[in-house]
Amino acid sequence: MRLVDTNPIGEVRENEQSGQKHLITMRSFEQDEILAQFGAVEILSTPNYLTLQVDHGKHILLDPPYLQFINHSCDPNCFFDTENMCLRALKKIESGQELTFFYPSTEWNMQQPFACFCKSENCLGEIKGAAHLADQEANRYKLTPYISKRRSQQQ
Exposed site from 1, 65, 119, 137, fewest CB < 10 Å? Predict the structure, then answer.
């Protein structure tokens, strides 16, 4: 792993074979602790693979930009709280761990669905967005207010 950047949370590292970047924390965080505040560098009307959906037709590019390197996991350790515009720990996170979040927690329809290889016990396999989750799958995760509202309207 090649060091790409250091930031207040930790380090962005790149897997030199795959080119994939990861955000690794360099300190511990307790459950529900705020890791970082965030805002929008830009607001887009359509999603791309770097945006976070905050409302219908409202997708933000994250500020600070290093947060875009938090990858997906079906067993996430953090959550983008779009009400308070902060990144929160979902559970205790030890120093040296990769930060991960559940992409469908903020995305209704993924602009680029993908096969997940997180290897967690509850791995969903294909990640397409919250619109494609069965209720039992969605109920395992903390979802943003926008995604929760859309799911309740869908039922």
Answer: 119
d(CA 106, CA 70): 13
The answer to whether the CB of 21 falls within 8 A of the CB of 69 is yes
Q: What is the per-residue pLDDT across 61-74, written as a single tens digit (0 to 9) for each?
A: 999 999 999 999 99
What domains, with CATH codes, occur in the chain? 2-149 (2.170.270.10)
Looking from the CA of 73 toward its CB, the CA atoms found within 13 Å total: 20
Cβ count near 119 (within 10 Å)? 9
Question: Which residue matches tokens 């109920």?
Answer: 139
Q: Kind of pairing, strands 78-81 and 86-89?
A: antiparallel
b/e per residue, 84-104, with b = 16+ CB within 10 A? eeebbbbeebeeebbbbbbbb
- At 95-114, the pLDDT tens digits run 999 999 999 999 999 888 99
25-53 pLDDT tens trace: 999 999 999 999 999 999 999 988 889 99
Could you tell me if 100 and 77 are in contact, meaning their C-beta atoms sit under 8 angstroms apart? yes
